[in-house]
Each structure stands twice: as C-alpha cells, then as structure tokens.
Write a structure and sequence with these properties.
13 strands; 6-stranded mixed sheet; alpha+beta; 7 helices; Helix Hairpins; 4-stranded antiparallel sheet; 42% helix; Beta-Lactamase
C-alpha cells in the first residue's frame, strides 16, 4: 500500500493520532528535510485507532530542471509491516543462534576442563605407581594410588554418561515410555537398591501423604530423577534424608528433604546451568549435570522441578507431575502414612 502527500503529512505528523509516539521526533525531522528539498527516507510506525502497530517506509524525491530549480516534491510511504516482521523473526533467530553458539563454546570449554581433571589425577597416580614398583615397601602406596585411579575412573564414567545424556536430551532422542506405575513400590525399590548400605547406617525416611494411586509415567526416567536427588541429599548432609510422596487430585508430588549444607542464596538462580557446582561443595564429588538432566526428565512429563534451599539449614527438592491416575492402591506394610 502506498500513501502520497498530503496523506503522508497527515499520517506522519499524527493528525489522526496515528504516529507512534517514540517515532515522532524522527518523523518531524524527515518532514523538515522534505520541505527543505532534501531527499531522504525513513522507517517509522503508526498506530491507527483500533488497529495493530504498523510499519511504513517514507521516501521523498525532488524533481529539478536543468538549472537545478525545484519543479516538484514527491513523497511516498509504503506499508512494510510484513517485511519488518520477517526482519524481526530473522534477528531473533540470529540472536538465538549466537546464544546457542556461546553456550556450546562454554560447554566445550567446561567439559574439556572437567575431562582433563580426572585424567591428570590418573596420570599422576600412574607415574607414582611406577616409582613405587622399585621400592620394596611400596605396596601400601601402590594400593592407595590404585584406589585413587578407581575413584577418578568412576567420576570420569559418570561425567561421560551425563554428557551423553545431555546430548540425547538436546537432540530429542531420550526414549519416553510412560506406563501405569505404582510409584510407592518404585520408591521402595530405589531405596533398597541404591541407599540401603549408606555410611553410619543412614536410611531414607519414606513418608506417604494421601491415598496412593497408580500414575502414568516413565518409571525409568523418574527413577533416575529420584536417585539423583537422593544422592545429593546424602552427599550434602550427614542426617538421613526424607522422601515424601504426596497424592492429590491434580498432582503427584515427590519431595526430597535434607538438613545439610544448603545452597548459598546468591547461587540459587544458577542451579540448573550445566556444570554448575555451588561454592560450598568443594571436595564433594559431582559432575554439575545431574540437576540439568533431572529437570529435563521431569519436564518430559509436563512437570516441574523446584528447589528451595537455605545455606547451613538444608534443601527441599520438589517434583510435581500432573496426576493421571487410576484406582486406589492398598496400603503397604512398614510404610508411614501421614493421612488416612
């Protein structure tokens, strides 16, 4: 659509209140140049009453005779809203691409560092073992460094597994196979399998709130989430953590509660960044990818993972998943229920 003077003047100056306020100074300058016989062009916005914001491209032309005398002024304004919208989409895509490239560079840099750390430790231990091989009393030292190597290999293996999992998530290749599950039984099996041999005889306290029912979820993915959160609870506290399962009409809620070292308040906003480790976790093993993976697995179920924490007081991790359930389940023996 094209507009000609005096339509340009009326729309540009805002006789009908159409010119978008932030663009009025530029429009006034354009009209001054137009009146002075200076050719120019300007992109500006108008806001017709009852309509959406639109973009116009105004251009002015001067026709002169052979001596340079002005014979005619011509002004044209084209509606370029569609073009501007496409430009905006392109700019947003480019910005997103730049952000992704930056994240990839950061990821590669951090991952390289995380890989080098255990490899350097392993290499140092190997070098020391070689020295102790020629020492008659070196057997104890060799065993010590073999243990260090085993520890670092396990850490390296966990890191590699987590990075491969992150790659599957980003490429949308994580298998998602929900089925009807007894989540209480799943949690009891996790506790028995993974957390029955903890130091100082610490055991997970399992609490049930509400009438249990079968839920529709991928028990493999949710088991991974629960294991990760409980592992953190054991690592970062000296007491027995609590796993609370809440059954409501709308949601299945899983809470992992510990009274450990907590997370500094200023760092809560960066919890779900890849490779993030809280500043008070030095010396405690971990890859910094567990929470990233756990949140992604929960979101595959249209759920949420929220973390509340206070330094030196403890942490509460809450997994909330929309309830798709059927049939109330019988109560299990040796399990504490908070309500009837």
């Amino acid at each position: 659509m094209e507009y000609y003077l005096p339509t340009i003047k009326r729309r540009a100056i805002g006789v009908y209140g159409e010119c978008f306020a932030p663009d009025k100074p530029a429009v006034s300058a354009f009209l001054d140049q137009y009146k002075a016989g200076i050719e120019s062009e300007l992109y500006y916005r108008i806001q017709p009453k009852g309509e959406t914001l639109r973009w116009l491209l105004a251009r002015s032309f001067i026709i002169r005779d052979e001596s340079g005398k002005v014979l005619r002024h011509i002004g044209i304004a084209n509606d370029v809203t569609s073009q501007k919208e496409k430009e905006l989409v392109l700019q947003q895509s480019l910005q997103r691409e730049q952000e992704l490239n930056q994240l990839k560079s950061q990821f590669v840099s951090t991952a390289s560092h995380e890989f080098r750390t255990p490899l350097t430790t392993i290499q140092s231990s190997v070098d020391l073992i070689k020295l102790y091989l020629d020492v008659p009393t070196g057997k104890a030292s060799i065993q010590k460094h073999v243990a260090v190597i085993e520890k670092e290999i396990n850490q390296f293996s966990r890191l590699l597994t987590d990075i491969l999992t992150i790659g599957k998530i980003e490429s949308g290749k994580v298998p998602f196979s929900p089925r009807w599950v007894n989540i209480v039984s799943v949690c009891e099996e996790i506790i028995t399998t993974h957390f029955s041999q903890q130091e100082e005889f610490r055991r997970v306290r399992l609490l049930i709130d509400g009438a249990p029912y079968k839920v529709y979820l991928d028990d493999k993915l949710i088991s991974h989430v629960i294991v990760n959160l409980l592992s953190n609870a054991f690592k970062f506290s000296t007491d027995a953590p609590c796993l609370r399962i809440v059954f409501t009409a709308k949601n299945l809620v899983l809470q992992i509660i510990d009274e450990g070292i907590g997370i500094p308040k200023r760092e809560l906003s960066t919890l779900f960044q890849a490779f993030f480790r809280a500043s008070n976790t030095n010396g405690i093993p971990g890859t910094g990818l567990g929470l990233v993976i756990a949140r992604q697995f929960v979101e595959l179920h249209d759920g949420r993972l929220d973390i509340q924490s206070e330094e030196k007081k403890g942490t509460v991790c809450t997994v909330s998943i929309p309830a798709r359930h059927k049939g109330q389940l019988p109560r299990l023996a040796n399990t504490f229920y908070l309500s009837k």
